Structures are given as structure tokens and as C-alpha cells.
Amino acid sequence: MAPASKYLCLASVLGWLLLLPLFLPSAVGWKFGAPTNACFDMMPRHERIKENTPKCPYKLELQDEATTYIPGETLTVCVTGSLFQGFLLQARVVGGTLPVGTFQENLPNNTQLMKCSSDNDSVTHSNVVTKADHTCFKWKAPSDDLGDLRFV
């Protein structure tokens, strides 16, 4: 093969490699955690993913039958129901849009802390590995009593 045709062949292969991503399906989710623009409206912004059915297949439960928080104390909150991959979890004042409290560093595998408005105020997935149908997180309540809170 003549040197000019080698370069032409190499250029052709490189051209196809550059165009290949255009023909592959686009990513359907956020495989390295929720995007920061989901922090306040909790919308996942997936492409080509259908919404869950009207009845959510997951529940958020507090362990040890906890129904209230004590400022500065730690609660365990669990995502239960079905196996899942991606998520974003926060505690909020009822009716509020800002996360409150902090999640602790001893996280389950395949999850990570996230900063929405302050360090460690949210937790999300770190990859697309399926999470257990009972995945729990330690959450430390804010030092002040903020009234009624909910996990979202």
C-alpha cells in the first residue's frame, strides 16, 4: 500500500470512529450520580425513560420506629421496596425546597455524598450497579429544631 493510501485509510477509520457516537443510543440516565440541577426540584432529567407508575414502588422508612428527630441526633433512613439503580435522597422542611441535615460518611456501596446547598446534605448513586431493595443511610439532624421534616 502506498504511503498516501495508508493515510487515507487511517483518516477514513478515524472519521468513522468520530462519527460512531452519533449512531449509538444516547445515555438514558446519570450513571455517576444525580446532576446538581436536580437538587431542588428532584427531577431526574433522564432521556427516553418512562415515568414510574402512579404508585411508587419504593418507600422511605425510618429505622427503630422513629417518628421524630432530635436536633443534632442521627437517624437511619432506608429506601425499601424494589431493587433500584439511580436515586437522590434528601431531608427537607415540609413545604421547603432546600435539603437540611447531613448524611454521614459510612455509606453503602455504590452510593456517594452530594452537595446541593451545603456539604453532605444529599446522597445519590455513584454508578449504575443495582442497589439492594433495603438500602440504609445515616442522617444527622440539624442542630436547631426546624419543625416538621420529610425525606424526599
TrEMBL record:
Keywords: Signal. Residues 24-152 form the Reelin domain. InterPro entries: Ferric-chelate_Red/DefProt (IPR051237), Reeler_dom (IPR002861), Reeler_sf (IPR042307). Residues 1-29 form the signal peptide. This is Reelin domain-containing protein. It comes from Ridgeia piscesae (Tubeworm). PANTHER family: CYTOCHROME B561/FERRIC REDUCTASE TRANSMEMBRANE, DOMON DOMAIN-CONTAINING PROTEIN. Pfam families: Reeler (PF02014).
